[in-house]
Amino acid sequence: MAEAPLLDVKGLEAWYGESHVLHGIDFDVRKGEVVTLIGRNGAGKTTTLRSLIGVVGKRRGACIYKGADLLKVAPHKVARLGIGYVPEERGIFSSLTVLENLLFPPAWQAGGMAVDEIYGLFPNLKGRDSTSGTRLSGGEQQMLAIGRILRTGADFILLDEPTEGIAPVIIEEIGAALRILKDRGMTIILVEQNLRFAASIADRHYVLDQGKVVDEISNNALDANMDRLNRYLGV
Ligand code: ATP
After folding, report:
1. What pLDDT, in 10s, does the model give residues 149-184?
2. Staple partner for 58: which of 15, 87, 166, 170, CB 3.0–4.6 Å?
C-alpha cells in the first residue's frame, strides 16, 4: 500500500471575517517532496499557508498532518509539530542582530540546525553576527528568515514567495540552499510566482484559482503544459 501523505488537505475553506476566501482546497504533500502553490494574485495561496498554521479567521475541512488535523491544533502549538512558516514579509526583527534573530525562536524539535550550519547554507550571513536585521538586503533577510526556521528543528517548511523582489544572483543562492535541504529530506510547500525558480526545485505544482485547486502538474510535465499554465496565470 502507498505510504500516506505527510499532509493531506481536504475541502479546506477559510474566511477573513465575512469574506469567504478558500472554497474547498484539496492537495497532498508526501514526505521529502517540494510542492508549489501557484496562481494569480488573490487566488488564495497565502491564505492556504496561513490556514495550515491557524492564522486566518474561520476554517472548515481537514488538514491531516502526521495523523492529526491541524484545524484542531492551536496556532501556538503548530511549530511544535515541526512545521515552520516563513511569511512573504519575512518577519525579521529589525532591532535584533543576525545572531539574535537566529537565536530568538525556541528550538521546538530535536535536530534543529546549529548556527554554524545555517551560515554554511547561507554564506552571506556568515560574519554578520552583529549586523542588525535592517541592514541586510532583501535577499539576506530572506535567508535569515529561512535560517531562523531551520534552527527551530522544523522539517516541514511553508515558504511564501521567497524570491519576491530579490536580485537574481541571490535567488540562485536561495534555490541552491533549498535543494540542499530537499536532499536532506526536508518537506517544503512553496508559494511562488517565479516559475523558473519553482521548476528548479519542485516535484509537483498545484494551481490555485479563486480559492480552489484547479490543476496539478508534475514538474517533469511543466514545459509540456506551459500554455495551459499561462492561461491560469493570465500571462
Ligand atoms: P498574492 O500573491 O496576491 O498574495 P494569494 O494567492 O496569496 O495572492 P491571498 O493573499 O491568499 O492570495 O488572498 C486571497 C483573497 O483573500 C484575496 O481576495 C485577498 O484580497 C483576500 N485577503 C487576503 N488577506 C486578507 C485579509 N487579511 N482580510 C481580508 N481579505 C484578505
Report:
1. 999 999 999 999 999 999 999 999 999 999 999 999
2. 15
How confident is the model over 51-71, as pLDDT tens digits? 999 999 899 999 999 999 999
Q: Can you say how many angstroms the Cα of residue 225 is from the centroid of all Cα atoms in its chain?
A: 24
Residues forming beta bridges with residue 69, ordered by sequence position: 64
How much distance in Å is there from the Cα of 22 to the middle of ligand 1?
10
Is the distance from the beta carbon of residue 42 to the nearest atom of ligand 1 less than 6 Å? yes
Burial letters 30-45, b for 16+ CB under 10 A, else e? beebbbbbbbbeebbb
Beta pairing class for 34-38 and 187-191: parallel
pLDDT in tens, 6-26: 999 999 999 999 999 999 999
* Residue among 12, 16, 55, 163 to mutate when testing ligand 1 (max atoms within 8 A of CB): 16
How much distance in Å is there from the Cα of 70 to the middle of ligand 1?
A: 21
Contact 217, 229 (CB under 8 A): yes
Which residues, including other chains, have CB under 8 Å from residue 230's CB and lie 6 or more apart?
none
pTM: 0.94
